[in-house]
Structures are given as structure tokens and as C-alpha cells.
Amino acid sequence: MSTMPAALAEVVSDFQDVEGQDKLALLLEFADELPALPSDLEEAAMEPVPECQSPLFLHVDAENRDNVRLYFSAPAEAPTTRGFAAILATGLDGQPADDILAVPDDFYTDLGLAKLISPLRLRGMSAMLARIKRRLRT
């Protein structure tokens, strides 16, 4: 846990504090809180994440490597994908690039969702983080 930014560690802790179906409810709460895209950013200009089962687009603004901005777009009818995107937005938006790169690739296993969500969907979350890291390395 020590390699996670405090905001992401707090999200993981919130998930660890609830059991069973309450974890899904918490994920859906996050889905409802996914920030809207800024008016100057269009989905067409964003990178698709084809590993996700639902259409998901992300944009990494690393112009200031001490304050990386992350933007996600996922349809309302894809609450699991939106929830994952919102977890990453809550936990990583505004963090330094080096801190994001230090996040364990499998941090999402600590959320305890494996019994509730298909491995395919969990791979989508892993793919989102991998793409963010790849953008930060270029």
C-alpha cells in the first residue's frame, strides 16, 4: 500500500471497509461521480481502451509532471467501467507522474472485487492503468 498515492490508498481502504454486495454499491457510487470532460476536450481526441468491455476513452495531460491530469469518458450504461475510471480519477488525478508510475499494476486486487466482477472487467481496469503509465513513460 505504501507505493500508492494517499488518495488512491484511501479509495482502496474504503473498499476494504465494506463486504460483498456493498462493494458493488460503492463501485456504482463512484460511477455516478466520474467527473465530466472539460468543454475543450472531445472524446474523439482521447485514447480508446479496447480492453474494456464498454467504450472507454482516456486522456493523460502530463504537461506538468508534478500534477498529471487524467480525464475519462465512459457511457452511463457502463457503470462498472465508469466506476473503475472514477476510482482512477479520484486516486490519481493531480498526482505526480512518478507516484502514478509507482502504483502496483495489480492494485485493484486490493479492492476485493474479484468475486463480484468478471476477470474480463478487472482486466479492463488493469488496462486503464497500464495505458496511463505508458503515456507517462513517453
Automatic annotation (TrEMBL):
- Which Pfam families did the record assign? SufE
Q: Which stretches make up the Fe-S metabolism associated domain? A: 13-134
The superkingdom of the source organism is Bacteria
- Return the Gene3D superfamilies for the record: 3.90.1010.10
Question: Which InterPro entries does this one have?
Answer: Fe-S_metab-assoc_dom
Cited PANTHER family: SUFE-LIKE PROTEIN 2, CHLOROPLASTIC, SULFUR ACCEPTOR PROTEIN CSDE
Family in the record: Belongs to the SufE family.
- Record-given protein name: SufE protein probably involved in Fe-S center assembly
Q: What is the lineage of its organism?
A: Bacteria, Bacillati, Actinomycetota, Actinomycetes, Mycobacteriales
